[in-house]
């Protein structure tokens, strides 16, 4: 019997969808993908979602770029993403693990200022101290000034998209460096929501 064991791969992956709340959603999605340099990740898009895989630094870079390239249109855009590292049998695209640390989209994104609201949840699978690991990352977000409150089954973050993505990437990395054999993180991110207008 061929048994697959978590933690056998260094590949990080993200499966995500972008939801622009606009009539021209197709052009916004395709335009955001086209503007993003995905040369350092394995990428596949179908009629349901997109997937990028490779080194974590480039996976987060690509997802961040696609989201910000969509949200800079000013339209209400929502990102739903699941990040994973340590998935058993995850080897397709492992050639991208040899890429260096240079983020291909960071320079282009630096001029984009975007406030976002986020719900995220961490799942350090296989960890005997998973709650402590999760709380360490929640406390880190609080220290960085982006955690606003806990919500059922998630933690809420509010702030600049660059700070938020940095916090998410750091939380994912820290859990990965702990005793977890397979780390999963779910993220729902909203930009330009009309419900934010007029809030006190």
Question: Key terms for this structure?
Answer:
200 residues, alpha+beta, Alpha-Beta Plaits, eight-stranded antiparallel beta sheet, 5 helices, 30% strand, globular
Describe the structure.
- With 200 residues, the chain is of the alpha+beta class.
- The protein has one domain (12-88, 113-193): Alpha-Beta Plaits (2-Layer Sandwich), CATH 3.30.70.930.
- It has 5 helices and 8 strands; from the N terminus they run E-H-E-E-H-E-H-E-H-E-E-H-E.
- The chain has helices at residues 25-35, 56-71, 106-109, 130-143, 161-176, and strands at 12-20, 42-45, 50-54, 77-85, 115-125, 147-151, 154-160, 182-191.
- An 8-stranded antiparallel β-sheet has the order 2-3-1-4-8-5-7-6.
- The protein is globular, with a radius of gyration of 17 Å.
- The mean pLDDT is 90.
Briefly characterize the structure.
The chain has 200 residues and is α+β, with helices and mostly antiparallel strands. The protein has helices at residues 25-35, 56-71, 106-109, 130-143, 161-176, and strands at residues 12-20, 42-45, 50-54, 77-85, 115-125, 147-151, 154-160, 182-191. The chain has an eight-stranded antiparallel sheet with strand order 2-3-1-4-8-5-7-6.
